[in-house]
Design goal:
The chain is mostly helical and 389 residues long. The chain has ten helices and two strands. Strand 1 (371-377) and strand 2 form a beta hairpin. The longest helix is centred in the first third of the chain and has 30 residues, at 98-127.
């Protein structure tokens, strides 16, 4: 009996699906096959067997040590003893510092610069220079020219405090003498040119003379200060004599000559006495200060004792002036003497102070000395002594 395979039913398409599908296509699709299992790869063959370990080398037999070197002698070679030390050098006072020397050089340079300035002023007056620029140039040229001359002298010669102070004192005394020569040389008529010429010549001669004397005498600072004090004493005493001896109340030949004599006499006396003094600069300054203070105190006392009234005569005014001048001069000398007495215990200048040097140490009775030196050797320390006992 033949069975009939029923034909697949025709599936009508859905009204919503407009695509036609053939029902036979669904029956022809193959069934999904399972995924093949991966085959296991065989393991690689094992490598060659490990090499056999090499046998360790046999240790070498130790070599015998060389015999130790013999130790040196217990006492090394003795060194000769060092030479004995000589006696210490005596103490010498320290030299002035570099800063002090520069100050003294500057003082000398300034003194010569003043001389150059006076020379420039003399040129301006003689040439009647009216141009301000030209006058300034001439004035600066004179000042720097004089200062340059002083600088060259300080480089040529060693300038200390005494030489510097003597240069300054020479400038002052020279200019004062030049001014005192105006009346006897140029009176009754003289002009500014002649006056400036005398001032310039006097200052130039005094500055050069003071510098030369300071270099030749080699004064200390205390000695040069004392010389300035004697110049002050001579000038003040001469001023009292000029005021007392004046009869007409005018400055004339009597007054001029008296001042010149007193000024130069004080300078000459100081130049003769100063080199023999051993005063320190402190003592000289104290005496100078006492001299000035004494003059001021004397003038103050005279001013309080004299009375100035209206309508007094010329003779009374002259008498009051003489009293004041005399009191100032007396106070000047009193202060000078009191300053010397009050400073009599001051130490002298280090240049003349013999006790400032350290004496040599006493020597042994045999006239030799003993010296010691360390001794260092291998594994030993010691001390060596040389000399005689």
């Amino acid at each position: 009996m033949v069975s009939e395979t029923p034909s697949p039913a025709t599936v009508a398409p859905s009204p919503a699906d407009t695509t036609y599908r053939d029902p036979t296509l669904f029956a022809q699709q193959p069934q999904p096959q399972p995924a093949p299992q991966p085959q296991q790869q065989p393991y690689p063959p094992p490598q060659q067997p490990y090499p056999q370990p090499q046998p360790y080398p046999q240790p070498q037999q130790p070599q015998p040590y060389p015999p130790p070197a013999p130790y040196p002698a217990p006492y090394p070679q003795q060194y000769p003893p060092p030479a004995p030390y000589g006696p210490p050098q005596p103490y010498s006072p320290p030299q002035p510092g570099q800063m002090s020397r520069r100050i003294h050089d500057g003082e000398v340079i300034a003194d010569f610069a003043v001389v150059g300035t006076l020379a420039a002023i003399d040129i301006l007056i003689r040439q009647d220079v009216d141009d301000g620029s030209a006058g300034t140039v001439i004035l600066l040229a004179g000042m720097f020219g004089g200062g340059g001359a002083g600088y060259l002298l300080t480089q040529k010669y060693e300038v200390d405090a005494g030489a510097a102070h003597m240069t300054t004192l020479g400038l002052i005394v020279g200019a004062a003498n030049g001014a005192l020569l105006v009346e006897p040389l140029l009176a009754p008529e003289y002009d500014a040119e002649d006056v400036m010429s005398l001032l310039f010549l006097g200052s130039a001669i005094g500055t050069l003379g003071g510098f030369a004397y300071g270099q030749a005498a080699d004064l200390t600072e205390g000695q040069s200060t004392f010389l300035g004090t004697t110049v002050l004493l001579g000038s003040a005493t001469a001023a009292l004599g000029a005021i007392t001896g004046s009869r007409d109340g005018e400055f004339g030949n009597w007054e001029n000559g008296t001042l010149a004599i007193g000024l130069d006499a004080g300078l000459l006396a100081g130049a003769l006495i100063a080199p023999s003094l051993h005063w320190s600069k402190r003592r000289s300054r104290m005496v100078l200060a006492g001299t000035v203070v004494g003059a001021l105190v004397g003038g103050m006392i005279a001013g309080m004792t004299t009375n100035s009234e209206d309508g007094e005569s010329a003779a009374e005014r002259e008498r009051n002036g003489e009293v004041v001048a005399g009191a100032m001069t007396a106070g000047l000398w009193a202060g000078f003497g009191l300053g010397i007495i009050m400073t009599r215990d001051y130490a002298p200048d280090p240049r003349f102070n013999k006790s400032s040097s350290v004496p040599n140490p006493p020597r042994t009775h045999s006239g030799t000395s003993t010296s010691f030196a360390p001794l260092v050797g291998e594994r030993q320390l010691g001390l060596m002594a040389g000399g005689t006992w």
